[in-house]
Write a structure and sequence with these properties.
There is one protein chain. Helix 5 crosses helix 10, helix 28 packs parallel to helix 31 and helix 36 packs across helix 38. With 1276 residues, the protein is of the alpha+beta class. The strands form six sheets. Strands 2, 3, 6, 11, 12, 13, 15 and 16 form an eight-stranded mixed β-sheet that branches. Strands 4-14-7-8-9-10 form a six-stranded antiparallel β-sheet, with no helix packed on it. GO terms for molecular function: ubiquitin-protein transferase activity; zinc ion binding. InterPro entries: B30.2/SPRY, B30.2/SPRY_sf, ConA-like_dom_sf, RNF123/RKP/RSPRY1, SPRY_dom, TPR_RNF123/RKP, Znf_RING, Znf_RING/FYVE/PHD. One of its GO terms (biological process) is proteolysis involved in protein catabolic process.
C-alpha cells in the first residue's frame, strides 16, 4: 500500500483515538499493511478501554443495581423479582399483544393484563403511551389480584390505578385525581415501596400522590397492571426504550444498558471526529500538511469509518439494548448534525437542503454502505418510532416544540435518497405511522390560556357569553401558530413526492409513495379497525396542500384539471381492488371491449399526463378512506363551532313548570340553588366544548384549507363530468368518486362554514354537483349497491340543508323533473324508505302542523338519549321547497298513469307499515299487561318505533301528493277513471283505519301504550300521526267544503269517506274534543238518535217529484216503500236506544274509570304548534261531516245476491270479459293495477264492462303483464 496513505491512516488514528504509541506499534507490527485487520483490532481495543472506564465509574458511584444489571450472569436487582426482560404473558384471545414496542389492544370488554416482573422494595417506574383516550386504568396490582370483565385494576382492594379519561384514581372507591389525558400522552407510573405511595406524571407534569399507605408485606409483590375497554390501546415501556419523562430517583424495571450506551457514545464521537477530518480542509492541513492530496485523506477516512460503523452496528442491533442505543444516542447524534437554528422551536423558515447537511448525509451514506440492510432498517425504525411518539404527544405550547422536532428530524432523514426509499418501502406505511407523524394536539390548559373568555350562545339566544370579535381575534393567533407547522409538513411530504432526476418514474420516490399509499388505504378501508384512532385530518390537509402545489407547478390550476377517464381501465393506476359504478370489472371489460379499445387507441399519454394521472391517483386514498371516514366525521363533530350561524351550544335554559293542575306553587330555595349550580356546570362544559371546537376549526377548517378542499372537489367533479360522455367511461368510474363528492360537498356546505368566503365559483361547482345528482339519482347504469345508497344519502342531505336545497331549486327544469320522477317511481321491488324521507323533506314546513324540529311531546320529556332512528324526520329543521313541490305537481298532472302507480304503491306501503305497527303494539300491550315482571326486547321496541315513523312519513307524503295532485283522487264523475275511484277508496279506508286505531276516543291499544311511557317508545305520541291525518282530511275535503252550497256539485270525496264501512265520526271529532278522554259523549247518542229520527221522518223528494203527485207509477211506489223501510228502521233504532239508555250510565262510569289515567289529547292543547287557521280548517271539516250525515238520503232495498262477493260493501256491477264473472268496480280496478287474471277462474281479462249499461269501464292490453307485488314478508 502507498506509504502516503499509510501515513494518513496512522495520523488519523492517532488524532481520533489518542497518542497510545506502544499499542499502535504492536498492532502495526502484527498486521503490517493490512489496515482492515488493524482497524478492527484497534476498535475492539478502544471499546475495551471504554468498558474498563465504565466499570470504574460504576464502582465509584456505588450503585449496586447498576453493577448487577451490567453483569450478564446476575439477573436479580435489589427490590425486584422477575426476568431481566419485562413483558406480558402469552397472547390471549381477549387482547392482541405487539412485541416491539410492547403494545396491548383490547378485543373484549375491559381486559386486564399484568406484567411478569414485580417489586417489593425501593422506587420503580414504567411508562405508557395512551394509544386511545377511552376508559383505561393504569397502575399496580399484587400477584393474587383477580380481574374479570366487571372488575379491573383498581376495582379490587389489592390494586391501584389512574383513569385519565374520567380523571379518577381507583382503589375500590374512586376520587378525583389528575388531568384528563389525550391520545398520544405519556403517563409515567411510579411506586415507592419505602414510603408506600403511588404517583403519576403526565407528559412530565407531576400529578401528585395518587395513593398513600398502600399495603406492604411478604405477600405484597406489586406488578405493573392495566385494564382497557374494548378497542382501546396502550404502548408500554418498562425500560427497553429510553423513558420520555422519567421520575427523578426512580429505577426502571429494565435498567438501561449502560455499557452499550458508553460504547455507542464513543463510536459516535469517533464518527463525528472523522466527519470533521473529511470535510475540514484546515484540519487536514493541520494533520498532514500540504503534501497530502484530498483523495488520499478521504480514502483513509472512509476506511476508518467503515470499521467504526461496523462496531456501531453490533451495538445498535442488540436484542435487548439495540433500540435503547438508537433512541438515546443515535437520535441525539442525528440532531447534533443539523443546524441549531433549524432545530430551534422558534424557527419557521424552510428546512435546509441536502447540500446544507453534509455531515448528516455522510453519516447516512456510511450507514447504508457499511451496515447490513437489516441493521439499517432497525436503526431507522427506532428513530421513526421515537419521532412518532414525540409527534403525537399533546403539547403544552402553541408552538408544538416536540412535534416540530419530530417532523424536522424526519425531514432531514428524507433528504437522503436511500433513506427516503427505505422509509417509504418498509417503514412509513406500517399501521398508521405516517398519519401519526403529521398529527398533533395541544393540552386543554393551552386552549384555556389562549381563550380565557369564549363566545357562545344558547339555541334560543337567551344566553350568550363573551365578545365575538375578541374571540375571533384570539382564534387568529391559533391559526397563525399552526401555519408554521403546516409548512414543515408540506416540506416533508414534498420530499415523499419527489421524482428524482435521471431516475425512471416507476422507481422514483413519488411512484413508491403513491403505490404504497393507495394499496395501504384500500386494505384499511376494507380491513379491520385501525389500531390507533388518531385524528388524521391534519395529515390529509397537509397532503392536499402539497399535491396542490405540485399540481399547479407541474400541470395546471386545480379548478381546470381532471383525471383522464381512460386511466380507470388501462391499468396505468392500480385500481384493481376498487369497485366500479357499472359493476364487476371483469364483466365491464367484456361488455365494453370495443369502446375500451377505441378509447385506448385515441389516447396519448405523455410523461406529464402520466404524472397527472399518477399524482391525483393518490386521491383514491385521500378521498375514499380519509375524507369519507374521517373528513365527514370530523365535520359532523365540529359542526357546533362557536361563531357560525348554527353554532349555538344547545343549552336548555327553561325552568321546570311552576304550575300543577292550574295552581301556582313556589320553588324551594334549595331547589333553586341546585338549579343554578347545574346551570353553572353546564356553562362551564359549554366553555370547554367551544375551546375544543375552536381547535378543530383551526386545525381542519381554516379558510385556506377549505379552499384546498374545494379545489379537490373541482377535480373530482370535472372527472365525473368527463366520464358522463360515454357509457363505458361512466361504468368504469370508481365508486369512491361518488363518496368524495358526497362527503366533501356535504361537509363544505354545513351551515357552520357559511361565513367563510372560500372561492368565487363555489355556487357554480355546487350547481354542477346538483345537476349530476338529479340526473343520476336512479340511473340504471349505477349497479353497485353502495354507490346507489351513496347517491340516495347525498340527495337526502341536499334537500335538507337550505344552502344546497337552493342549489337544487336553481338547476335547469329538465334536471329538476328528472329528480322528481325518480323519487316518484313506484315503491314496489326497490328500497323505498330513504326515498320517502326525501319526499318528506320537500314537505316539512308546509304540511298541517308540520313545522316542528322536535315533536312537541318530546320538548318537555327528559330522556337519556333520543329514541328515534337515524332517519327520523323529527331531527330535521323545516326546510320546505315550494319549487320542488310545484315540479312534483306538474309531474303528477302530466302523467296520470305513472302517478297512479306511485300512489298505489304509496298506499300499499302505508297499509303494511301501519298494520305492522299495530301488530307490534298489541304484542307490547300483552307483555305489559302481565302480572309477572316481563322485559320487552329493545330490538322489538326499536322496530315498533321505526314502523311508527314510517307510517307518519308515508302519511306526510300522501298529504303532499293530495295537495299537489287532488285530481288523481277526485276526478269528476264524467271523466272519472277506474284508478281515481280505487285510489280514493283505498285512501279513505286507510284514513279511517288510522283514525279509529289512534284517536283518543278509540278502544285500541295506542292510547294505552302511549300512557305507559315505556322507555324506548318515546317517539310514539298522538301529535305526529294525528296531525298528518288531519292534513289529509283537510286536503281531501277542501273542495267539497268550498262547493257545498252548489246544488250541482257532487261531493265525491265526502261520499267515499262516509260510505267507507269503517268510518266513525267520533274518531274525527276526537281531534278537537279534549274534555272526555274516553270518547263517551253524554249527548252524542241522543244527538245521533235525533238525526236518525229526522232522516226517517223527513219527506223524501227527488227532482221532478212533489208530495202531491198522484200519478207517480212504479217509481212512486218504490220511493214509498223505501220511505216505509227507513221509518221502520228508525223505530227499531229508537226502541234499541231506549233499552241502551238505562245501561248507558253504568257503561259510561266503567269506561271513564278504565280510562281515568290516560291523558286526553286535542289539537287545541298545542297552540304553539297548531295555528288558528289550521284549527279552523279541521273544525270546518268536522262540522261539514256532521252536517253531511244529517242530509236526507234514500236507502234502496238491499239484495245480498247482487253484492260483490269480494268486499260485500258494493253492488257487483263490473263484468269481466271474456269470462263474464262479476265484482264491484272498485275491487276489480284495484286488482287490475297489479294483475291480469280473474279473481275466480284465473283467466286473462281483456276488458271490464258495466253489467247494466254495457259501457266499457276498463280496456286492457293482454300482452302487458305487470309484476305481482313483492311478498309482504319479504318486504318486511
Amino acid at each position: 500500500m502507498d506509504s502516503q496513505i499509510d501515513h494518513c491512516m496512522l495520523r488519523i488514528v492517532q488524532h481520533i483515538f489518542g497518542e497510545d504509541s506502544e499499542v499502535l506499534l504492536d498492532l502495526l507490527a502484527q498486521h503490517g499493511s493490512a489496515w482492515s485487520s488493524f482497524l478492527t483490532d484497534y476498535i475492539h481495543y478502544a471499546l475495551l478501554q471504554c468498558e474498563k472506564q465504565h466499570w470504574q465509574s460504576l464502582l465509584k458511584s456505588g450503585n449496586p443495581n447498576g453493577i448487577q444489571h451490567s453483569l450478564p450472569f446476575l439477573q436479580r436487582r435489589i427490590g425486584r423479582l422477575g426476568p431481566s426482560k419485562v413483558g406480558f404473558p402469552e397472547k390471549k384471545q381477549s387482547y392482541d399483544l405487539i412485541p416491539e414496542p410492547i403494545a396491548v389492544l383490547a378485543k373484549e370488554n375491559f381486559v386486564s393484563v399484568m406484567a411478569n416482573t414485580g417489586v417489593h422494595k425501593g422506587r420503580w417506574q414504567y411508562e405508557v403511551v395512551v394509544g386511545s383516550s377511552g376508559v383505561i386504568q393504569v397502575g399496580w396490582a399484587v400477584a393474587y389480584s383477580k380481574f374479570d370483565a366487571e372488575r379491573g385494576v383498581g376495582d379490587t382492594a389489592d390494586s391501584y390505578s389512574y383513569d385519565g379519561n374520567r380523571q379518577r384514581s381507583w382503589n375500590v372507591n374512586c376520587r378525583k385525581y389528575g388531568d384528563s389525558w389525550q391520545s398520544g400522552d405519556v403517563i409515567t407510573c411510579g411506586i415507592d415501596m419505602d414510603k408506600r405511595t403511588i404517583s403519576y406524571m403526565r407528559n412530565g407534569k407531576h400529578l401528585g400522590e395518587a395513593f398513600s399507605s398502600i399495603a406492604r408485606g411478604k405477600d405484597c409483590l406489586y406488578f405493573p397492571a392495566m385494564s382497557l375497554s374494548k378497542h382501546e390501546m396502550l404502548v408500554i415501556n418498562f425500560g427497553g426504550h429510553p423513558l420520555q419523562y422519567p421520575m427523578p430517583q426512580y429505577n426502571v424495571l429494565e435498567a438501561e444498558p449502560s455499557l452499550q450506551l458508553a460504547q455507542s457514545e464513543a463510536c459516535l464521537l469517533w464518527l463525528r471526529s472523522l466527519s470533521d477530518v473529511f470535510f475540514s480542509r484546515s484540519l487536514q492541513l493541520q494533520l498532514f500538511g500540504s503534501g497530502v492530496s484530498t483523495g488520499d485523506v478521504e480514502g483513509a477516512v472512509l476506511s476508518i469509518v467503515q470499521a467504526v460503523v461496523v462496531a456501531l452496528e453490533q451495538l445498535c442491533v442488540g436484542e435487548h439494548s439495540g433500540a435503547y442505543v438508537v433512541q438515546r444516542h443515535v437520535m441525539g447524534y442525528v440532531e447534533s448534525l443539523m443546524p441549531a437554528s433549524f432545530m430551534s422551536h422558534n424557527d419557521t423558515s424552510a428546512p435546509p437542503c441536502r447540500e446544507q447537511l453534509p455531515e448528516l448525509m455522510f453519516f447516512l451514506d456510511a450507514v447504508h454502505a457499511f451496515m447490513q440492510p437489516e441493521s439499517t432498517y432497525k436503526i431507522l425504525h427506532g428513530l421513526l418510532m421515537l419521532a412518532t411518539t414525540w409527534s403525537r404527544e399533546s403539547s403544552t405550547s402553541l408552538l408544538l416544540p416536540r412535534h416540530c422536532r419530530a417532523v424536522k428530524v424526519v425531514t432531514a432523514l428524507l433528504l437522503h435518497t436511500s433513506t427516503r426509499h427505505l422509509m417509504v418501502d418498509k417503514l412509513l406505511f406500517v399501521g398508521v405511522r405516517l398519519q401519526s407523524l403529521f398529527c398533533y394536539s395541544v393540552d386543554e390548559a393551552v386552549m384555556q390560556e389562549l381563550l380565557p373568555e369564549v363566545h357562545w350562545r344558547s339555541q334560543d339566544a337567551r344566553l350568550q357569553r363573551g365578545d365575538q370579535q375578541l374571540f375571533l381575534s384570539r382564534l387568529q393567533i391559533l391559526h397563525d401558530a399552526l401555519k408554521s407547522v403546516e409548512k414543515l409538513h408540506v416540506a416533508a411530504l414534498t420530499l415523499l413526492l419527489t421524482v428524482e432526476p435521471g431516475v425512471p418514474y416507476a422507481r422514483s420516490t413519488r411512484a413508491r409513495f403513491l403505490d404504497k399509499f393507495r394499496n395501504v388505504t384500500i386494505k384499511r378501508n376494507t380491513g379491520p379497525a385501525r389500531l390507533f384512532q388518531v385524528p388524521i385530518l391534519p395529515f390529509f390537509h397537509s397532503l392536499l396542500e402539497t399535491l396542490g402545489q405540485l399540481w399547479q407547478k407541474e400541470l395546471a390550476p386545480w379548478q381546470r384539471s381532471c383525471i383522464p377517464p381512460h386511466v380507470f381501465f388501462d391499468n396505468s393506476i392500480g385500481l384493481v381492488e376498487s369497485n366500479r359504478l357499472g359493476g364487476d370489472k371483469e364483466y365491464l371489460m367484456k361488455t365494453f371491449a370495443e369502446e375500451r379499445t377505441k378509447a385506448l387507441a385515441n389516447k396519448q399519454l405523455s410523461y406529464r399526463q402520466h404524472c397527472a394521472s399518477a399524482g391525483p391517483g393518490s386521491l383514491r386514498s385521500a378521498g375514499s378512506c380519509w375524507v369519507a371516514d374521517a373528513g365527514r366525521g370530523s365535520v359532523g363533530t365540529s359542526a357546533a363551532t362557536s361563531d357560525g350561524p348554527e353554532s349555538s351550544c344547545r343549552m336548555d335554559t327553561s325552568m321546570p313548570s311552576t304550575s300543577s293542575g292550574g295552581e301556582e306553587f313556589t320553588v324551594p330555595v334549595a331547589v333553586q340553588e341546585e338549579l343554578r349550580r347545574s346551570l353553572r356546570l353546564q356553562e362551564r362544559d359549554c366553555d370547554r366544548q367551544v375551546r375544543v371546537q375552536a381547535w378543530h376549526r383551526a386545525v381542519s377548517f381554516a379558510p385556506h384549507r377549505l379552499a384546498a378542499l374545494l379545489n379537490l372537489l373541482h377535480i373530482v367533479v370535472n372527472t365525473v363530468q368527463a366520464s358522463e360522455s360515454s357509457e363505458a367511461m361512466f361504468a368504469f368510474l370508481p365508486d369512491y368518486y361518488l363518496e368524495v363528492i358526497s362527503h366533501l360537498s356535504l361537509g363544505l356546505a354545513d351551515s357552520f362554514m357559511i361565513d367563510y368566503p372560500v372561492v368565487e365559483d363555489e355556487s357554480a361547482l355546487y350547481r354542477s354537483i346538483a345537476v349530476f345528482l338529479c340526473r343520476h339519482f336512479m340511473d340504471a347504469r349505477v349497479r353497485f349497491t353502495d354507490s346507489r345508497e351513496q347517491l340516495m344519502q347525498t340527495v337526502a342531505f341536499y334537500v335538507t340543508c337550505p344552502t344546497t336545497l337552493a342549489v337544487i331549486e336553481n338547476v335547469d327544469v329538465e334536471s329538476r323533473e328528472a329528480l322528481v320522477r325518480s323519487l316518484l317511481t313506484p315503491y314496489e321491488s326497490r328500497v323505498w324508505a330513504q326515498n320517502n324521507w326525501i319526499l318528506v323533506r320537500f314537505w316539512k314546513g308546509s304540511g298541517f302542523a308540520f313545522r316542528f324540529y322536535l315533536s312537541p311531546h318530546l320538548k318537555t320529556k327528559i330522556t337519556p338519549k333520543p329514541s328515534y332512528s337515524d332517519n327520523c324526520m323529527q331531527l330535521i329543521k323545516p326546510c320546505p321547497s315550494w319549487v320542488l313541490q310545484q315540479v312534483l305537481a306538474e309531474v303528477l298532472s302530466r302523467d296520470p298513469a305513472f302517478s297512479s302507480r306511485f300512489i298505489s304503491s304509496l298506499l300499499s306501503q302505508l297499509n303494511w307499515a301501519f298494520s305492522e305497527f299495530i301488530g307490534m303494539l298489541q304484542e307490547i300491550q300483552n307483555f305489559s299487561s302481565r302480572v309477572e315482571r316481563v322485559f320487552i326486547d329493545s330490538r322489538q321496541l326499536r322496530i315498533c318505533c321505526t314502523c311508527f315513523e314510517l307510517t307518519v312519513s308515508l302519511l306526510r307524503v300522501l298529504e303532499m301528493v293530495l295537495c299537489a295532485g287532488p285530481q288523481l283522487f277526485l276526478a269528476a264523475p264524467a271523466s272519472s277513471s277506474a284508478q281515481s275511484d280505487v285510489l280514493l277508496s283505498m285512501l279513505c279506508k286507510l284514513l279511517c283505519h288510522v283514525m279509529n286505531r289512534v284517536s283518543v276516543g278509540s278502544s285500541g291499544c295506542f292510547t294505552r301504550i302511549v300512557s305507559l311511557e315505556i322507555p324506548g317508545l318515546d317517539s310514539l305520541h298522538h301529535f305526529p300521526i294525528l296531525t298528518a291525518a288531519a292534513g289529509i282530511i283537510v286536503a281531501l275535503l277542501k273542495k267539497d267544503i268550498e262547493n257545498q252550497e252548489d246544488p250541482e256539485y257532487d261531493p265525491v270525496a265526502t261520499k267515499a269517506l262516509v260510505s267507507e264501512p269503517s268510518f266513525q265520526l267520533r274518531s274525527f271529532e276526537a281531534l278537537l274534543d279534549a274534555h272526555d278522554p274516553a270518547g263517551v259523549h253524554p249527548t252524542a247518542f241522543a244527538d245521533r238518535l235525533d238525526a236518525i229520527s229526522a232522516i226517517a221522518s223527513a219527506p223524501i223528494q227527488r227532482p221532478g217529484h212533489t208530495r202531491n203527485s198522484a200519478a207517480a207509477g212504479p217509481a212512486a211506489a218504490a220511493t214509498a216503500a223505501a220511505a216505509a223501510t227507513a221509518a221502520a228502521e228508525a223505530m227499531d233504532v229508537e226502541e234499541r236506544a231506549t233499552e241502551l239508555a238505562a245501561a248507558q250510565p253504568a257503561a259510561d262510569t266503567a269506561a271513564c274509570e278504565d280510562m281515568a289515567e290516560i291523558p286526553a289529547f286535542s289539537l287545541r292543547q298545542h297552540p304553539d304548534d297548531v295555528s288558528e287557521a289550521e284549527l279552523e280548517a279541521i273544525s270546518r271539516c268536522i262540522a261539514y261531516l256532521q252536517q253531511f250525515l244529517l242530509r236526507p238520503t234514500v236507502t234502496p232495498p238491499s239484495d245480498e245476491s247482487q253484492d260483490c262477493v269480494i268486499c260485500y260493501a258494493r253492488r257487483a256491477t263490473a263484468q269481466f270479459l271474456p269470462c263474464r264473472h262479476l265484482s264491484c268496480r272498485a275491487c276489480i280496478s284495484q286488482h287490475l293495477m297489479t294483475h291480469n287474471d280473474c279473481f275466480f277462474c284465473t283467466g286473462v281479462i281483456s276488458s271490464v264492462v258495466d253489467s247494466t249499461s254495457g259501457d266499457t269501464i276498463i280496456s286492457r292490453d293482454v300482452s302487458v303483464v305487470t309484476e305481482p307485488p313483492t311478498d309482504m314478508a319479504t318486504r318486511r
